[in-house]
Write a structure and sequence with these properties.
- The structure is a single chain.
- By secondary structure, this protein is mainly α.
- It has one domain.
- It has 18 helices and six strands.
- The strands form two sheets. A three-stranded parallel sheet has the order 5-1-6. Strands 2-4-3 form a three-stranded parallel sheet.
- Helix 4 runs parallel beside helix 7 and helix 16 packs across helix 17.
- The longest helix is centred in the C-terminal third of the chain and has 45 residues.
Length: 471
């Protein structure tokens, strides 16, 4: 367990070092000069750290603002957000006397399962290796609760083995679903998405062409006159975030914001200036995130050829969904965020109107990262009309299915559910199968996941292109 925990905490749990190690191995296998290998590794690590700073800044700055709505109106509610889910599941596991070390064991098992899926890709048809470490921690933690909650008799190494198998299959099969559509979006950049909305990305890409015209996309949207200033992503992001978060912070009021962020009011800053200052951090962190993505993706895709050629033939790295942002129109991320947020707020209002026993507070990660991803892929394959419909629909689904999951899996009392789209579209129903059918349900979920890449390959129009990771 000490060895397992060290590897998980210091390698898998720190994705920047994991990415850096993979880049170093890849360049060594490509027989690059030692200083070129070190250079590539350092650039990849720093690039991923920039991505983490951008993503972490977005979450840490704006999650308390959204959660503050709960305190301001004295709502007894749970938050749909991966970080709230981590805390909630941790408390839930402790409440049944289970150590979270089982999660770490399951995570390592899952990574091995994913490697085996790619290693035997001739038969499994899985081409992608999930290497987004912090997402692996989040998903394996929640899946641990689903298994341990559904089957109390397996709150032991056998349950951890089940969690590992389910996690590894989800990482490998889910990211494999995104290979073709991500290659199409990025013009064969050589990576797939390894995050928590992989099923949603695939579904959006398939539904979008039926909802709109890809030629009428956000990139072709030209604004007349003075509105053309909003074609600059920095300007449009800044203005819309001042309006969006300005309204929320104004509703919360100065007193609540001082309670949530006392340091932000140091030096006697006025409330209007504080609102503008904090809202502009959205633009800052988004630019930092984009900068980091460009830096590490270039190194990873180049070096991964060494791993793909020598260790795992045909493998493709599956990385953070934010890596797709630079390949989309400048306004696509913001478009998905706004439409998805509106969808979430409409669904929350519906829960209030119909006196739902479960009340949900929107989480920043799903409302930003998930809905932005849906907008990017929907716009690419079906234009801005498809992006609008699917982003809004995603927001509705996140809240409504999240409310069901909070109630069904008894996590409402612990304050959070994962919230990301795959934990609305797939895992609640997989968890329900585990709860109702026990081991039979586990077997059915495993068979279902294994069947997905087989069906992908069967229906692929060009089998050779599929094998090469092009479709």
């Amino acid at each position: 367990m000490a060895v397992v925990n060290w590897f998980v905490n210091n390698i898998l749990g720190l994705p920047e070092f994991f990415i850096g190690l993979l880049v170093l191995i890849g360049y060594v296998l490509l027989k690059k000069r030692w200083y070129e290998s070190i250079t590539g590794m350092l650039k990849a690590i720093v690039g991923y750290m920039l991505l983490n700073i951008g993503a972490g800044g977005l979450v840490s700055t704006f999650r308390p603002i959204l959660a503050g709505l709960k305190d301001r109106f004295h709502l007894h509610a749970a938050v749909i957000d991966p970080y709230f889910a981590l805390s909630g599941v941790d408390h839930a596991l402790k409440s049944i006397g289970v150590s979270v070390s089982w999660t770490m064991t399951a995570m390592l098992i899952g990574f091995i399962v994913n490697i085996l899926l790619v290693m035997f890709r001739k038969w499994t048809k899985v081409r992608s290796l999930f290497i987004t470490g912090h997402i692996m921690v989040q998903t394996s933690t929640v899946i641990t609760w689903l298994v341990f909650f559904a089957m109390p008799q397996y709150r032991n190494i056998w349950g951890a083995l089940m969690v590992g198998i389910l996690s590894g299959l989800y990482w490998g099969v889910g990211s494999n679903l995104t290979v073709g559509v991500t290659q199409d979006l990025t013009n064969q950049a050589g990576f797939a998405v390894g995050h928590q909305q992989m099923f949603a990305i695939w579904a959006s890409s398939k539904i979008a062409p039926k909802l709109g015209n890809k030629e009428k996309n956000l990139g072709n949207l030209k604004l007349p006159g003075w509105l053309s200033m909003f074609e600059d992503s920095i300007v449009s992001t800044s203005v819309l975030m001042i309006i969006f978060f300005g309204i929320i912070m104004t509703v919360l009021g100065k007193h609540m914001m001082m309670k949530l962020d006392p340091a932000g009011f140091a030096g006697g800053i006025s409330f209007p200036v504080y609102v503008i200052h904090e809202s502009l951090f959205f633009t800052v962190y988004l630019q930092v995130l984009m900068s980091g993505v460009r830096m590490f993706v270039a190194e990873l895709t180049n070096s991964f050829q060494g791993i793909s050629n020598k260790i795992l033939p045909g493998a493709m790295p599956a990385v953070d969904v934010a890596t797709t942002y630079p390949f989309a129109p400048n306004n696509a991320v913001l478009f998905g965020f706004i439409l998805g947020a509106i969808g979430q707020f409409v669904a929350i209002l519906g829960l209030l109107v119909f006196h739902s026993p479960i009340l949900v507070i929107t989480g920043f990660v799903p409302v930003f990262f998930d809905n932005a991803a849906v907008a990017i892929f929907a716009d690419h394959f079906g234009g801005r009309r498809a992006a609008a419909i699917l982003s809004f629909s995603a927001g509705l689904i996140e809240v409504l299915v999240g409310a069901f999951a909070l109630m069904f899996f008894k996590l409402f009392a612990f304050g959070g559910w994962e919230g990301s789209l795959d934990f609305e579209l797939f895992w609640p129903w997989a968890g329900a199968a585990l709860k109702v059918l026990k081991v039979v349900g586990f077997a059915l979920v495993v068979i279902f996941l294994l069947a997905i890449p087989q069906l992908q390959y069967h229906f692929a129009k060009d089998k050779e292109a599929y094998d090469q990771g092009k479709i």
